[in-house]
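Reopening this ticket.

The earlier resolution said the output was attached, but the attachment link was broken on my side. Pasting everything inline this time so it's all in one place.
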Amino acid sequence: MKPVVAIDGHAGSGKGTMARMLASYLGFAHLDSGGLYRIAAYMQLNLSQFQGSPPENLVSLLSKMSMQDLLEMQRQISEDVLRSDIMSIAASSMSKLPEVRNVITKFIREFAADPGRNFLGSVIDGRDIGSVAVPNAVCKIFLTAEPQIRAKRRFKTLKAKNSSVTFEEICQNIIARDQQDSSRDTAPLTLNDDYIIINTSNETIEESFEKIVKIICDSVINR
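Inline output:
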């Protein structure tokens, strides 16, 4: 299997941005695992033929799809829709369901096993990539930052999009997400000794990027 870099971390830690930067630099494919749950939530909430259907119906539908089907659907849906607060809440609910999580994990593992012949490996970000989905990842990074720092960064991004959300709301949401992700019964956000923790509270994205590139290169060389 081609090398897999797992980027896990807290909500708002910047793991998605970091994963995209790393994938581009390394010539790896990138997968945002959270985006798969957002697609599942979109299907459950917005497609008329599935609206109001129980989760097991959604799982049946997902099971008939390929990874390429999901990625194609993701390309067709507006980023603003997928990243909306409503979809975030719905995706979080989807991720708590073992039957949904099992089928999404299967898709993640398929991507890790075959990211495409034009890529040297893959960078996959999420909550449990290195601990559950791809435990044999060659490098496991856990990104974090103080909740207030993560809220400040998120607030800056949303204000640039003319969002009316307040800093206090974002901060409360991030703290709640931390608690929810760490305490859920199915695939909670956990750390083990394989992870290298990167706290970006006092670092720029460029500083963290340079540090992680070195860690990945050392991991691949010493594999």
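Reporter confirms the inline version is readable. The chain has a mean pLDDT of 87. Residues 214 and 220 are 10 Å apart (CA to CA).
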